[in-house]
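Predict the 3D structure for this chain.
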Amino acid sequence: MARFFRWIGLFILLVVAALALTALIARMSDGPIGVFAGGPLDSGDRMAEGLSDWTEFRGVDAIDLQLLEPPRSRRVWILVDDDGSLYIPSGFVRSLPIWKHWPHEAVKDGRSVIRVEGRLYPVQLVRIEDMQLLSKLGRKLTAKYELPAQEGPPDPEDFWVFRVDPRTAS
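Done. Predicted structure below.
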């Protein structure tokens, strides 16, 4: 029986080491690797400024997002509203405080770079707190990603949405 537990312990140690190595490699990479945050976004055509109309990306499911401070990237879902505005939702902000740092960092300094279809855009993230808009975007998110429907309005402490505004590269 002791031998069995040694093998289980060794297996767990190998899994933890593999995850730690993947996380380390991701931090040095050009973009995220799966759920692991990546390094600064480098590859792609650099655009001089962000767009004010993101309609052409309505069918895109996810993009790479990098905050300028700290310079880490992650893969995020997106929503393009009827008026062409781009939004980045973040759920579980309060529920997963150990995992979800980027929304709080974006509120402090929303200067960001996003990579969409091989192009890098300098943008500014602005948190949306209008409950009517949050509810509308929550419904769009549920439909686009086929999520379970939620009764009532979203919890503004746990579901944050950022509007992506144009910014000139600096």
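The helical segments are 2-27, 102-108, 131-144.
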